[in-house]
Structures are given as structure tokens and as C-alpha cells.
């Protein structure tokens, strides 16, 4: 599937983008926010931002642009909820320390934090060495918990190809970082 987006026909572009990204965006936000209505609102906001951007510029990688916009909108929403708690309603799934056992919270020694940061830096560098499609597929599958069939639809590839990208990324991480 072509990931290049230009502004040739605004109406059909809007329909294509909405059809292609609406369901994945809803799932993206619902995994992070407990409120379905809020997830729908944020999804609409992402799509509006993408539509506006596509009117004035050519978007080279639609998938990347859409999910970067989604991450930015989610961060903006979180900041707004923190400043105005009465507006926020439902909480976030990944609030820091919310579901961690006490031993993990109490054992945050400076050494442990430093080792964790170094390990994270190593993983991020290793991910950066991967081809863009392999990296994106791996992140959506392993970090965003997106189903392989949904990733396949999103990128216009087979589910088998998605599996191959995930395995390729895992092998690369194991080689570079020593992790399975």
C-alpha cells in the first residue's frame, strides 16, 4: 500500500485516510485511556490534523505521520488533564507506578535507574538500526500491542510478512542487546 499522501483530491483523501486509520487509532487511544468517547474524540482530532496537513503539504509516510500526530495529541491531552483534573474523567492505563508491585517502586536506587537508562538507550539505538518498516511493525506489535492482522492491513502486507519483520527485529535486538 502506498504510504505517500498528497493533496490531489481532498474528499477522496479524507475518506481513504479515515477508512485506513480510524480503527487502528481508536485501538491506540483505548489502550491508553479508559474512556471510549474520549478515544473517539482524540481519533477525530488526529484525522483533522492529518487532513489539514495534507492540504498544505505532501506527507511522505502516512503511517508514521498519523501515529506521531496521535502520540502528540495524547501527550497534549494528558497535560491538559493534569492541569485540569475535573475535565479528565477516566484515567490512563499506563500511569506511573499505578500497577507496579511495591518492591519495584521501593527499589529505584540510582544504580538501578542508571542501568535501566543505559539498557533503554542500547535498545533504542538497536531499533534505530532496523529498516523503517521492520522497526514500525515491531513497535506496533510488541510495544503498542497491536494485532498482527491489523498491522498487515495498515501496511498492506500479509500477516506472514508482519511475522517476519517481528522475528527480524527480535533477532537483531537479541544480537545487539543480548535479549530474547
Percent helix: over 70%
Termini separation (Å)?
Answer: 31 Å
- Helix-strand sequence: HHHHHHHHH
Structural class: mainly alpha
Radius of gyration: 18 Å
| Strand-residue proportion | under 5%
Low-confidence parts lasting 5 or more residues at pLDDT below 50?
90-100
**Beta strand count:** 0
Question: What global shape is seen?
Answer: globular
The largest β sheet comes out as: none
Topology:
Elements: H1 10-30, H2 36-56, H3 62-83, H4 85-88, H5 102-106, H6 110-128, H7 132-143, H8 148-155, H9 159-177
How does this model look, in words?
The chain has 180 residues and is mainly alpha-helical. It folds into 2 domains: 1-97, no CATH class; 100-180, Arc Repressor Mutant, subunit A. Helix content is 73%, strand content 0%. The chain is built from 9 helices and no strands. The protein has helices spanning 10-30, 36-56, 62-83, 85-88, 102-106, 110-128, 132-143, 148-155, 159-177. Helix 1 (10-30) packs antiparallel against helix 2, helix 2 crosses helix 3 and helix 8 (148-155) crosses helix 9 (159-177). Residues 90-100 have low confidence and may be disordered.
Amino acid at each position: 500500500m502506498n504510504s505517500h499522501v498528497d493533496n490531489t483530491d481532498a474528499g477522496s483523501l479524507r475518506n481513504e485516510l479515515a477508512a485506513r486509520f480510524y480503527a487502528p487509532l481508536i485501538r491506540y487511544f483505548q489502550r491508553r485511556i479508559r474512556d471510549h468517547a474520549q478515544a473517539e474524540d482524540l481519533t477525530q482530532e488526529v484525522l483533522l490534523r492529518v487532513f489539514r496537513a495534507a492540504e498544505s503539504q505532501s506527507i511522505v509516510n502516512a503511517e508514521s505521520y498519523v501515529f506521531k500526530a496521535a502520540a502528540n495529541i495524547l501527550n497534549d491531552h494528558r497535560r491538559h488533564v493534569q492541569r485540569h483534573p475535573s475535565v479528565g474523567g477516566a484515567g490512563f492505563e499506563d500511569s506511573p507506578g499505578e500497577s507496579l508491585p511495591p518492591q519495584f517502586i521501593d527499589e529505584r536506587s540510582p544504580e538501578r535507574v542508571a542501568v535501566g537508562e543505559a539498557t533503554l538507550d542500547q535498545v533504542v539505538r538497536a531499533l534505530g538500526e532496523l529498516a523503517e518498516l521492520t522497526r514500525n511493525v515491531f513497535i506496533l506489535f510488541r510495544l503498542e500491542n497491536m494485532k498482527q492482522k491489523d498491522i498487515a492491513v495498515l501496511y498492506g502486507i500479509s500477516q506472514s510478512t508482519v511475522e517476519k519483520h517481528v522475528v527480524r527485529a527480535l533477532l537483531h535486538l537479541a544480537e545487539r542487546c543480548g535479549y530474547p
